[in-house]
Amino acid sequence: MLRLSVLFIYFCVLSASAAQLSVIAIDYPPFTSKSEPRDGIAFALLSDSLKGSDLLPVPAYWSPARAHKLVQKGDWCASFYPPLKPDDNSIIIGLGEEPIRLGLFRHRQQSAFKWDTLTELEGKKVAYLRALSRDGIGKDMTDAGMEIFNVETVKQGLMLLDRGRVDYAFGDSISGPLIMKSLNISPETYQFSSSIFRELPVGIWLNLKCEQASMAAAYLESGGYQRLAIN
Fold it and tell me: Which residues form the signal peptide (predicted)?
């Protein structure tokens, strides 16, 4: 009984000594999701990279709209959801080597799925994330004459594509096929664009105005992790 009490106190001391690093995320399997082992690939990479530090990453899941609002307000420490216009206190540190390619899915056709300019897709309907529809990629598609069908998640967009409600669905080359399989949709019947919007590494955004984020940045960089250029 005494041994159990000592162990309990020991684990309580460990928990108390670790500073919690709150990390904003949305449900985006396999990268960040409560349903994935260790909360997904991105959280596993972050936890492994912070081993030996006095920091404990704590997932804070929000809807895309809420995550967008929190990050834009500056009310955050760490985030897998990117700030729209990073300031001098916002940095991103790479955690993995394999990049994430952002593009569009469509029903498979014999021709290559590519474009030189988005105006080639004028008049087409695309499922895209509501929280991002007015900025960045969403604005580019709207300016090119594409019609955006707002969705809350990539999963919803792929479901609409499968039902023939949209011409294209926004997604990435890694999670898209996995989400399709979870919906009992054959990835082989769909085609990911060879033209892409962005190619991004798996990285963690840190707000250096937050003490825990500054600690995380210092620890990661001392371990050889590098800041990534912000375009």
Answer: 1-18
- Cα–Cα distances in angstroms (integers) from residue 169 to residues 53, 70, 88, 117, in the given order: 40, 26, 33, 17
Nearest to 203 by CA among 20, 41, 60, 75: 41
Distance CA 36, CA 56 (A): 18
Q: Among residues 167, 187, 101, which one has the least CA distance to residue 137?
A: 101
- What backbone torsions phi and psi does residue 19 show, to the nearest 5 degrees? -80, 130
Contact of 45 with 81, CB cutoff 8 Å:
no
| Superfamily (CATH) of domain 100-199 | Periplasmic binding protein-like II (3.40.190.10)
Which two structure tokens, joined as six digits, stand for 186? Answer: 């054959």
Please write the tens of the pLDDT for every residue from 40-91. Answer: 999 999 999 999 999 999 999 999 889 989 999 988 999 999 888 888 899 9
pTM confidence score: 0.74
Same fold, 2-98+201-222 and 100-199: yes
